[in-house]
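[Automated response] Your request has been received and processed.

Submitted sequence:
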Amino acid sequence: MASMLDGCTPWPQEFVDRYWAAGHWGGNTLDNLLRGWALQYGPRTALVHGGTRVTYARLNRRVDRVAAGFRLRGLRPGMRVVVQLPNVPEFVVGVFALMRAGVVPVLCPVSYPASEVPELVRVTQAVGYVGPAEYRGVDHTAVAADIAARWPFLRRVFTYEAPGTESPYGGMTTDPSNCQYAPLGSIDAAPEPALPPDAGQVALLLLGDGDGWGYGGGGAPVLVPRTHNDFAYQARAAAELVSLTEEDVYLAALPAASVFALGCPGIVGTLGVGGTVVLADGPDPAECLPLVERERVTFTSLPTAAAGAWLDALPSVRADVSSLRLVQTGGGAPLPRAAAERLGSGLGARPQQVFAPAGGPVLLTDGTAPGAQGRPLSPDDEIHLVGADGRNVPDGEPGELLARGPYTPRGHYRAAGDEARRFTPDGYFRTGALARRTADGGLVVTGRVPESATD
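Generated structure:
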């Protein structure tokens, strides 16, 4: 790998060569891929949110101008900026614009506890924060102001205001701690020449705790560095596995900052094939089922419990969901056979279970084995199930799931003191998940390894 962000562990050169030779890594940055998608799919609709529809061409132009606006406000390549936004077009624009400016977005779900955001900023030494001024009773601007008063590195706060809401910052303002505040909508400047692409660099930092979702709170934040090469490959491989095309419409009901909604194949995978991403503010069936009918949604990803809630709500909501062909579920126990059959018959869509911790591996069912969590996404995923003694367990027996591969990082960000517990000496990621292998080769994730076993 050519380069990495300080505090991250690179892949050994022999694996770099292997993944390049296999065609997994393409050498293109995510923001540069967006340029290509805009050229190929320019007039097609990329994003839908409420009454807002954004074409690929418009999305790319806005990313260009916001990236230039970020640079105008002093953001430089390699800096980190926390992004904590709900599922709105500004999330997609902001993340791609930061990457286009060479800045590393630190993706933080808007539901992440406000009390834990300061530690996230401290660990990453984030110089900026992008978030809503207020969201569901939480004053995010006040949270950022408190952080800025404590630590000198956070000096830029960009606030998102819902449409029709007037920003308290008519332009850019500065508080006594010399922190600058500006509405995100005001970040705009004439596009500048593109930075030289370096797909080996870290594209983004994901919050991960090994729970299969890629986000969560509690304790010191675990930060997973994802490079342009590895994340682009994951999203592309997942899109190919589910036969995604430009006719597909993805409903992003999970937080866009989660790896599941962002790249399994999610938002990035859908944009990569010219499809449409519909952004929802959560999996509530009262909101989502009418969106499925209105936008002719073809696939979505949901918490397992939410899938059941959708089925329960169908008789009262009475939405036409016949366009759905695939419903991904995850974030909990495997979907029982009866529930999978009910989901398939009730929604008329193929259920697919997904296990996707922020640091890999991604396991997806192929539709032939209800109750199995799935098979590894990549042919170069290496999987072991081991007991407490570190030895492989027999098929059918539970063991900790260990993995390494072309989209599974070899270390976490600035976590050197804890890496021996999370990674083996030969580079396998200790997911902390208990799994067993079925007779047909599928993997069933059954729970978590007790904390004492991983200490």
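Summary generated for your ticket: The first helix runs from residue 13 to 21. The chain has a mean pLDDT of 89.
If you did not submit this request, please reply to this message.
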